[in-house]
Amino acid sequence: MKSSLPFMRSCKEASALLIAREDQTLPLRESLALRLHLAICAACPRFERQLLTLRNAMKQWRNYSGDDK
Hints:
The model has no long low-confidence stretch (mean pLDDT 88).
């Protein structure tokens, strides 16, 4: 989904922004470009949900004490 418009992002670029967003706050321009891409793309919102699932699973794993036997 490559476009000549400066604010459009490809799926590859959007994926990189989704991953970067896990560790840092995106600049406003990048955040808006990502939101636009997610609004028009079918695959990238699915990847976003997968990242959320992984983040939640890792959070539960970090908090697991092993005393639940």
